[in-house]
């Protein structure tokens, strides 16, 4: 873990150390007894450098969205710390978080649930500005028009309601809202997963353009490696609340080390029929174990074809295997 | 009437397409106008006693005539005038009682649903307690202890009928508060109060409005039954409920239908009309259509 910290520490914008988010499971009518813990996020370490896009990949239920929300303190973390610049977010009260909320924003997956259906667009986009009393009523219209232009929407439509827009347009509204406070760090929680394929590329390009223009840093959460490959600089692969591998995008695709990463990569279709026919998929056996009853040792050991005795007994730590490459696997270490 | 293409604009269009709802609304409006302009419509004062001509006896139980459109009641008062003025009292009681129950129910439902945990537990147990109150018994005891007044009826109905609103609002809040736009508002640092008022309340207003109409109909029925039993609106103030009191006498019930049929019918009509409006609203607000 110490190794992760020392890499270009000066350039780090946000770092997560030993982050755990556990949800107690209770049962009973009168006296609610705790019968177990869902370890949604179970000890994460990573750092995100200024101006980069950090991809976080994993299948559904592995805790990627929980991680994103815990960083913004929308979900309280159980353990660990989150440093933004030099401030520990987990130790702050919601009141102390207020000024930092300008810097840290979020884009949501479902563009139908992330916009208040009773508010016209002008109110949706200006809401954060009003919450931070950053604009007066007279400036509102100009500022919203400016933001709408930035994300490629026609400001003429600012008095319309969300249901009058398409999915892609709604996602643009969500992006405009997250940019309203001049955010520096944006958690993109599967921002294109709910969109049509034809629209996905547009939104991805928009996100990249804005990043270049405004110097943003993204935590890009996705379950689709091909999307992450396009947008990310570095990628972390998550499995059952833990990171199993972190490395640069190129390295990950050329030299995946963790068996789980290899499995994920083999599932990515290739846009060339000749090569696609030759693609061999690694099929893992069984299902993802329930986060209520995680296997002992390495979380992937129950499905890994190369699992040895040690894998089932001891949990591998995230270790540096080469420059800029960390893997949590006994096989590699 | 509403901002173009807003949720309420669509709902309005759907509502006006529903014939039954529009008829219900028209009937309700008719009674509201009747209540508002009671002094202009009623030929007599509601509590004016009439005497048999040339004699010093009340002209009671007089059959309908051109002088008394719906005859007179057991004290020689004009039934039609009492019916018109009764609309005022009945509607005032119902609307004020519903206002009380809606405010209490909405506030408690919002707090309960939004904050959850111990607050939710306390409020929901309170709801259980209030639901198990024997309303009639409670009112009879209150009216024997205190001087009966119309305000006691209003507050009594209001304080026992907020529970369904509270449960409804709580359930709606639980649904809405997990949506992403609430998370987005929290990520911007919006205060709890603002989230509740600006993001949650506007999105649960539709079911509350349906609940208000249905609650009004139920309050009218409640007032009628309380007044019929003599613990509601007291004489000489006319209400549709206490006008039915005369029907407790077998003689009236059997031989003088003009005394009890009109208040009974208007009561039925108004309640039915309001229910139709409520149904229409519910369909209009259902955006799945």
Question: What key attributes describe this structure?
Answer:
heterodimer; A: 333 residues; alpha/beta; Rossmann fold; eight-stranded mixed beta sheet; four-stranded antiparallel beta sheet; 12 helices; 12 strands; 24% strand; disordered N terminus; B: 289 residues; mainly alpha; MetI-like fold; 71% helix; elongated
Sequence of secondary-structure elements of chain B:
HHHHHHHHHHHHH
Radius of gyration of chain B: 23 Å
Which CATH architecture of chain B is right? Orthogonal Bundle
The major β-sheet of chain A equals: 8 strands, mixed
CATH topology-level name of chain B:
MetI-like fold
Helix and strand content put the structural class of chain A at alpha/beta
Pattern of helices and strands of chain A: HEEEHEEHEHHHEHEHEEHHHHEE
- The CATH homology group name of chain B: MetI-like
Tally of individual domains of chain B: 1
Uncertain residue segments of chain A: 1-8
Helix content of chain A: 25-40%
Total strands of chain B: the figure is 0
Q: How many domains would you count in the coordinates of chain A?
A: 1
Which architecture of chain A per CATH? 3-Layer(aba) Sandwich
Secondary structure class of chain B reads mainly alpha
- Sequence of strands across the biggest β-sheet of chain A: 6-7-8-3-9-10-12-11
Overall pLDDT metric of chain A: 84
CATH class of chain B: Mainly Alpha
Number of helices of chain A: 12
Low-confidence segments of chain B: none
């Amino acid at each position: 873990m110490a190794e992760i910290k020392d890499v270009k520490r000066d350039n780090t914008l946000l770092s997560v150390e030993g982050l755990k988010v556990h949800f107690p499971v209770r049962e009973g009518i009168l006296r609610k007894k705790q019968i177990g813990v869902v370890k949604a996020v179970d000890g994460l370490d990573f750092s995100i450098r200024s101006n980069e896009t950090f991809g976080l990949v994993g299948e559904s239920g592995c805790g990627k969205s929980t991680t994103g929300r815990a960083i913004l303190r929308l979900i309280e973390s159980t353990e660990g710390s989150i440093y933004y610049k030099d401030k520990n977010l987990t130790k702050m009260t919601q009141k102390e978080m207020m000024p930092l909320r300008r810097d840290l924003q979020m884009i949501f997956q479902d563009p139908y649930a992330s916009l208040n259906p009773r508010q016209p667009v002008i109110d949706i986009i200006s809401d954060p500005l009003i919450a931070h009393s950053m604009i007066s009523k007279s400036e509102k219209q100009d500022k919203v028009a400016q933001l709408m232009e930035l994300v490629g929407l026609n400001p003429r439509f600012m008095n319309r309601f969300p249901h009058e827009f398409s999915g892609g347009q709604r996602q643009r509204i969500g992006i405009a809202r997250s940019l309203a406070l001049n955010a520096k760090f944006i958690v993109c929680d599967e921002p294109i997963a709910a969109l049509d394929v034809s629209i996905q590329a547009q939104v991805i390009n928009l996100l990249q353009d804005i990043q270049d223009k405004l110097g943003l840093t993204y935590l890009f959460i996705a379950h689709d490696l091909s999307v992450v490959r396009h947008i990310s600089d570095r990628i972390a692969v998550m499995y059952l609340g833990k990171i199993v591998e972190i490395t640069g995008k190129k390295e990950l695709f050329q030299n995946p080390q963790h068996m789980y990463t290899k499995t994920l990569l083999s599932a990515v279709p290739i846009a060339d029929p000749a090569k696609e026919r030759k693609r061999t998929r690694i099929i893992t056996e069984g299902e993802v174990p329930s986060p209520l009853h995680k296997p002992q040792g390495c979380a992937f050991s129950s499905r890994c074809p190369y699992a040895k005795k040690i894998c089932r007994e001891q949990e591998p730590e995230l270790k540096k295997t080469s420059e800029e490459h960390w893997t949590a696997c006994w096989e590699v270490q | 009437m509403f901002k173009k293409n807003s949720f309420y604009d669509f709902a309005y269009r759907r509502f006006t397409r529903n014939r039954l709802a529009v008829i219900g609304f028209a009937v309700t409006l008719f009674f509201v106008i009747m209540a508002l302009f009671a002094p202009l419509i009623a030929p007599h004062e509601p509590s004016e006693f009439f005497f048999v001509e040339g004699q010093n006896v009340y002209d009671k139980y007089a059959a309908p005539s051109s002088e008394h459109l719906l005859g007179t009641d057991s004290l020689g008062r004009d039934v039609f005038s009492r019916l018109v003025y009764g609309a005022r009292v009945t509607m005032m009681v119902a609307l004020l009682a519903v206002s009380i129950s809606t405010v209490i129910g909405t506030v408690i439902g919002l707090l309960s649903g939004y904050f959850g945990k111990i607050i939710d537990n306390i409020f929901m147990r309170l709801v259980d307690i209030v639901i198990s109150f024997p309303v009639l018994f409670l009112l009879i005891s209150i009216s024997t202890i205190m001087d009966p007044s119309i305000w006691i009826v209003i507050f009594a109905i209001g304080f026992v009928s907020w529970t369904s609103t509270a449960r409804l609002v709580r359930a709606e809040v639980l649904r809405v508060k997990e949506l992403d736009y609430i998370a987005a508002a929290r990520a911007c640092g919006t205060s709890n109060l603002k989230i509740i008022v600006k993001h949650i309340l506007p999105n649960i207003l539709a079911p509350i409005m349906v609940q208000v109409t249905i609650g009004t109909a139920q309050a009218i029925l409640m007032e009628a039954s309380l007044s019929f039993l003599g613990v509601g609106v007291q004489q000489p103030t006319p209400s549709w409920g206490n006008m039915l009191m005369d029907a407790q006498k077998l003689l009236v019930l059997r031989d003088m239908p003009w005394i009890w049929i009109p208040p009974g019918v208007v009561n039925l009509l108004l309640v039915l009309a309001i229910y139709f409006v409520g149904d229409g609203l519910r369909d209009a607000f259902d955006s799945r259509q």
